[in-house]
Amino acid sequence: MLDLELDNGLAVLTIDRPHARNAIALDTMDQLEKALDAAAGAQALVIRGAGDKAFVSGGDLKELSALRTIEEATAMAKRMRSICDQLASFPAPVIAALNGHAFGGGAEVAVAADIRVAASDVKIAFNQATLEIMPAWGGAERLAALVGKSRALLLAGSGKTLDAAEAERIGLVDVVLPRASFEEGWRSLATSLAHQPAAEIKRVINGVSPDEAIASFARLWVADAHWQAAERLMNRNAKPQAAGGAE
């Protein structure tokens, strides 16, 4: 099951498969594709797992073990790679809220997001090598972009498991929150990014020409939202006039 919540510009996509520790099956891929289409227009997108045990525990081995040919494996990998690419290219900020452990394909989903927020007790591992396979959903390349090629090879090649603090130290995770305040914390962070300037900043960071960056700024400058915010700020900063006054 997959749930999509839309609230005032914030889309929250929750993978809810407790019997499989939120692992991704072929039907989950169908639902992810539909949910991403339904989230179009959101100012920020959060992807998370249900519960507090697993973010995504990878691919659903019980189901995916039926894929035994090169052609079947290729088709599955291409499809889920495409979904992770859609996450990465979503026009607004994407936050992976690591409510639980992210292993294998789950770690690949996490690095497809722009920002990773983790509860302090979670672990993350690109541990496909322990099954004598490798990341196939774009995770190896995205991991290298985050932590460097040599460290990515070390982590994915060995399948090493990191705790949240270590993942934050090397830049794999951006924010670590106490478990007690995790739900409130990731939602507050996501809400703070659910506005048009953050989407434009993401576009510029991902690579546009200087002229395109300036054009983005100019569009925001002339928008009503900018002038309304500027007026609020000027009114707040205006000093109250003294009572009376000299004649």
Automatic annotation (TrEMBL):
Family matches, as CDD domains: crotonase-like
GO molecular function annotations of the record: enoyl-CoA hydratase activity
Catalytic activity annotation: a 4-saturated-(3S)-3-hydroxyacyl-CoA = a (3E)-enoyl-CoA + H2O; a (3S)-3-hydroxyacyl-CoA = a (2E)-enoyl-CoA + H2O
Assigned keywords, A-Z: Fatty acid metabolism, Lipid metabolism
Coiled coil: none
Family in the record: Belongs to the enoyl-CoA hydratase/isomerase family.
Protein name: Enoyl-CoA hydratase
